[in-house]
Amino acid sequence: MTTTNAPFRYDVVGSFLRPQALKDARQQFADGQISAEELRAIEDKEIIDLIKKQEAAGLKSVTDGEFRRRYWHTDFFWGLNGVERKSDVAGYEFEGITTPGDTARIVGRLSGENHPFVEDFKFVRDNASQGIVVRQTIPAPAQFFNEIFVFHTDKNLPAAQEVYPEREALLDDLVKAYKTVIQDLYDAGLRNLQLDDCSWDVLFTHDESQFSDEERAEREQLKDDLVTINNRVIDGLPEDLVVTTHVCRGNFASYHFATGGYASVSDHLFARENADAFYLEYDTDRSGGFEPLADLPKGSKVVLGLITSKTGELEDKEAVKARIKEASQYIPLEDLYLSPQCGFSSTEEGNALTEDAQWAKVALVKEIAEEVWEDA
Q: Can you give the pTM of this predicted structure?
């Protein structure tokens, strides 16, 4: 069952550690020491080098490592028309650390024309080898929904209501904006789109009994909102565009955000979201067991994130193989794949491991996959 598009038996989520030269250049640009053009040239050089490293590692799809981004999500939001970057909010509270306070605020009608990610994609397209799939990662529509209606409602929601007194009009334009960007990417040759999605984090739990009836009703409504907005964007896209989703639990400088099993959301996320494959974090017991995978429709593809990107310590191969076997009780082995649980650098800070360790992790994923699946 060899495939020419994602997911692949051994795969990655998309972001890679930023080289020091790139970090230095971004700081120099922030300090006014180099121009935007000079920064772009350095980014170009480092991205070309990364593409070559990904291909040398045997990966069948490549990304730009998100080297042009500050954050995995807000840079995309800032590229939409009608959105501005704001830094007047509190950062996200991770387990042991707080992120910088940056957000995306609606200041005008939303639209997706001339999004900078399209040119970024074209650059990778033009520098990847023949036969290599170029993947574009963007935040899921549900992530933008949460940025307005869940996380920073004290400032983002009133600003949005100034432009959109009617909630449905806002959501309609958000869907149109996403579809415009995706169509432009498709027209440029994209055939593998990955929707990165941390929006479910606020719903993960190991203990549903802690909630009141009112809280349960609110949680059900939010689950419905998240899966609905994602499907509104996914539905109707070109049939040969593979749309996958990576369900992230927070990945900031090796710290995590969410704890709780997928059972708390599987009735919506797994049973209803129309993604072609699900990249799921399973590197620690924070994610719970594999039982919720049974809620996925027959034939669904699952990429098991059993290798952590948060530390450089290599996993025991046999232990990983045992977990793959365990997962196959709920999803047939032929529909399972392997990857790190998240990217190596969801923000420019990067996780707490070296570049050598990063590539050793990629090599381990490949090695295990080739031993488990004959078609790897």
A: 0.95
